[in-house]
Amino acid sequence: MFVFLLKRAAQAIGIVLVVAFLSFVMFQFVGDPIEGMISENATQQERDELRESLGLNDGVIVQYTRFVKNMAQGNFGISYYNKSDVLSLIIERLPATLELVFVAVVISLVVGILLGVWSAYSRNGLMKNTVQILSLVGVSLPSFVAGILLIVVFSVWLKWLPSHGRGEIVEFGYWSSGLLTLSGLKAVLLPAISLSLFMITMIMRLLKSEIQETMRADYIRFAKARGISERSIKYKHVLKNSILPVVTIIGLQVGGLIAFAVVTETIFQWPGMGLLFIQAVNYVDIPVISAYLVIVAIMFVVINTFVDLIYLLVDPRIKVS
Prior knowledge:
The chain is mainly α.
């Protein structure tokens, strides 16, 4: 176990270094951050002095090395646009993003597993075909289109749910949550549904195919021959052995939801890390961009490690190594 965790820590360090370097290289060509930090009437001397004070005259390798050294000390620098500590900005936006992803994952698991089990065992051909068609729509529909449709239907036409913002939140020190207020719950529903649509259809289709394949396995035939009840076979033997690939997908998709919640947060003006990232790109705020990508990369590694450890609980036959 210790060696496994040590290897994952080494992988995390390598991934962080690569992601930080790529972010520095890519965003050198996005634009000039000085343009968004200084007035149009500023002289060339003032521009040069500001550029020198920020270290922008140094080469990419020098800037990258300086960023890595500061990052190792927990210092991600100062935002060019917000003029405040980058880590504080991200920590301030982190609860909103994690809350959105948490609700989206819960919706995906509940709806996806229920639909997957139902479509695998149901004998209603018409309903099964309808669900399959809807799942294809869910997989192929871009998240920004789904978000706009949800806003039009539930906010504009029906006026049931708000189209933007996080609603009323409750503060717990450095943490904040909208799940404890009615307005917060209403505000999170539309963006969470929009974010979860792809994951719902993926879980449903994967679980259905795994259940159907498991039902044809030899040990299931032996269980039927021994007289074990059909209900026990379906929900104790088949479902338990079919759920492992779903755990894998969930682990991969949770990291993806955090990384790609950018579009959803922008559409619904959700005050999370994704919206902060989009604003940073618009203003060429390289410290915020780099810090965001590094933190998301760390989250990917941590989540995937956690999923690997969950395998031991789902299937004890799997070894940590």
